[in-house]
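Histidine--tRNA ligase structure dump, as promised
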Amino acid sequence: MRSPGPPPAVSCCTPILITRREKALKTKEWIRPRGTADVLPEESFLWHRMENAARKVARLHHAKEIRTPLLEYEELYSRSVGDATDIVEKEMYTLTDRGGRQLALRPEGTAGTARAIIQGRLFSGPLPLKLYYIGPMFRYERPGQGRLRQHTQFGVEAVGSASPLADAELMAMALRFYEELGVTGLTVSVGSVGCVDCRRDYAAKLQSYLRQDAEALCTDCLRRLELNPLRTLDCKQPGCRSRLGQAPQLSASLCPPCRSHAGGVDAALDSLGLPYERDPLLVRGLDYYTGTVFEIQHGGSAVSGGGRYNALYAELGGPPLHAAGFGVGLERTLLLLRDTGALPDAGPQGPDVWVVPLSEAACPRVLPVLDALRRAGMAADSPLEPAGWKGALKTAVRAGASYLLVLGEEEDEAGMVEVKDLATGLQTRMPLDAFLYRCGR
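structure tokens r here:
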């Protein structure tokens, strides 16, 4: 039998066949993870618009910015948000570092802000204190419209006031954010989850009611029924919603102080003329809420929400501070802008001035001219390579510039430039200083 011999040598020119699976795996390495999104340059102006609106509203309400880490100790969220919540049970991204410490990517902004206030002893300064943040949050959930595993949130926390006026001010602040973006037709849905004593009494009544027909509940609600009965009120399953429609109402179990606070919130909202309605089943999905909870709604769907959390600071080892806050998902807001036709125009996206040298000899002038233009307050750019008039005009129009400024080496000593107004077509030869004086800001 003839020996098969050694395999043929593979040179650098030998074609290598790649299987479809290998190609798919290779391609998959360079696509973004599911539940995340790129903000491309064509869309970035929309994000600037939302962020600018958030910062304007924060400034008008004397809220100062706070930036907390993306990583916190996992226990911070399990203690404050609640062990039986969907965030802690199903959605939190956790990891163990090399020191064996359990960390979590930030799923929401309130707990980290509270930790920072306690650690930084901000409560020792003037109160009440309003803080805001804009940043990414991480939750492992099924991606959908406006629901991403990495999403961006604008949030506000008001600390140090027990007044129902503070609750109403936050609702007005959230509505003002949407108003700045041109969104109309919003309403506020308001509820109250009461204090610890109210909830304890109500939880017993709700638990007793739901156990009478427990087989009608979904699997999650059966578990919540034993761990935290109020979480069942947040269920969206039709069978559970139908059963809960006849359940005892939490509003009937409120103690006198909580009932008085709810009445104060209503009176404050009335004084502002804000559109709102009371929802006895509104509880929100986080355990730290006490008293007022609310959602901003459009067309019957919640677009943002918040509430009061008077027990959180003491629970985290700080002083017993009264506090309330809200959070707005900016991806969801972007969808709302599209749905309501409130998307703003991009406006001019090109530079004010497009600078092109006509020859290699003129190239050394490009950077000093660009610097002079920018110091005069004009956005300026250049291909940094020489081109003829036809090519220069073509690239300037493509860049969306307002002016084309052409540099020729023969104009170097006199500091002259050739300027073409791309709106009118008027072309003028003038000193650079004259152009800066005429068009600078």
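Residues 7-15 have pLDDT under 50 and may be disordered.
lmk if u need the other ones
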